[in-house]
Design goal:
The chain is α/β, with parallel strands linked by helices. It has six helices and seven strands. The longest helix is centred in the C-terminal third of the chain and has 22 residues. The chain is elongated. The mean pLDDT is about 95.
Amino acid sequence: MTLEDVATPGVETAGPDTSVEVLADTMAERTVGSVVITEDGAPVGIVTDRDLALATLRGDADPATMTASDVMTPDPRTMNVNEGILELTNAMCRDEVRRMPVVDADGHVVGIVTLDDLVRLLVAELGNLAGVIEAESPPY
């Protein structure tokens, strides 16, 4: 199974000059926890709801003038759409990230995989395994 099989397509993106207000509105309207910041389709940063909260609530912050480039994590780690889940989980653990943009061969964002996505997948797979065990277990 590759990331093409598990990545959520249609990832929310914005440019580096997008205001934090627009980013917050996008996250709220789309019920997502992050927006990938792109230039020419390639990821240059990522902004999470936590980034917005921490950056805009500082005493010296002026949210009215802040943009994505002010609050984003620059140069986010990405994974190629053809890589596998084991490589993804190793990278997420190593880099201590909960979200991973997925890119095509040209480096353009095609999706995102989150820790929540992986937990849902694991639950489904464990359910499948439990079904096998239940089918093969003698009645007690």
